[in-house]
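Workshop exercise sheet. Pairs work together: one partner reads the sequence aloud, the other fills in the structure field after running the prediction. Swap roles for the next sheet.
Pair: D.N. / O.F.
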Amino acid sequence: MVDSNTNRFSLFEMDKILRTAGADRVDERASKKLRELLEDSASEIAFKAKILARHAGRNFVQKEDIQLAAQQLMA
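Structure field:
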């Protein structure tokens, strides 16, 4: 879980995502939970992408590394 002092996404953005998905009203706890889940997922994807880049002999992460890492986590 991501440290609560290092939130990368704002609650406003989470509220906006939920409203775009069709929610008329959004509880702050729902926005906080969505932020937690997205930050955890983003951290996992970034870590896996770094490993994939290193496996390919690169020191930098490419778009394809992110895509493959996300696919692996969603499988």
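Discussion prompt: The chain has a mean pLDDT of 93. What would you look at next?
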